[in-house]
Design brief:
This is GNAT family N-acetyltransferase. The chain is an alpha+beta fold. It is 30% helix and 37% strand.
Length: 166
């Protein structure tokens, strides 16, 4: 495949993103949120194929613990890489691109939640310098977007990891 490119998604990218990553309802929702300034959808591309994405949540956090202890801090959500391209640095590049964008926009730190059973992701974040916050685990709601457009809400307990930028 050609060189990898990470860039902010635009509406014209939607068909290619759905073709590679599925989740049409999810990406339509995130592009709509991006349009209103509530976030930023970054997508990793190889040639014309989307191979990964991360959403930078810029709106106030949904969880009260995050609003209390990390007011105004951007959250990284939904970091994913297609299965056949994992373990090739794409997740790390997506993190780096999101962090650089946030730093350039004046943010001093970034946070994310990771499921307790997602050990591979936890190792990736710790390698990038993320550290667990001192306020314990947080009950969150995972939104699962089904191919038919249905959204399913599932409870999920997460570790909250924070990284200073710069």
């Amino acid at each position: 495949m050609g060189a990898r490119d990470i860039r902010q998604a635009v509406h014209d990218d939607l068909p290619a993103m759905i073709g590679s990553l599925g989740q049409g309802a999810y990406f339509a929702d995130r592009l709509a949120r991006q349009d209103t300034g509530h976030g930023l959808l970054l997508v990793a591309w190889e040639s014309a194929a989307a191979v990964g994405d991360v959403y930078v949540w810029l709106a106030p956090a949904e969880e009260p613990e995050l609003r209390t202890h990390l007011p105004g801090v951007a959250l990284l959500t939904h970091l994913e890489v297609v299965p056949w391209r994992r373990n090739r640095g794409i997740g790390t590049e997506l993190l780096w691109a999101a962090e650089e964008r946030l730093l350039g926009d004046g943010h001093e730190q970034v946070a994310l939640g990771v499921g307790l059973d997602n050990l591979d992701a936890q190792r990736l974040y710790e390698r990038r310098g993320y550290a667990e916050w001192p306020h314990g685990e947080v009950a969150t709601t995972k939104v699962v977007y089904h191919p038919d457009g249905r959204r399913e809400l599932r409870p999920e307990v997460c570790r909250i990891l924070v990284r200073k930028l710069g």
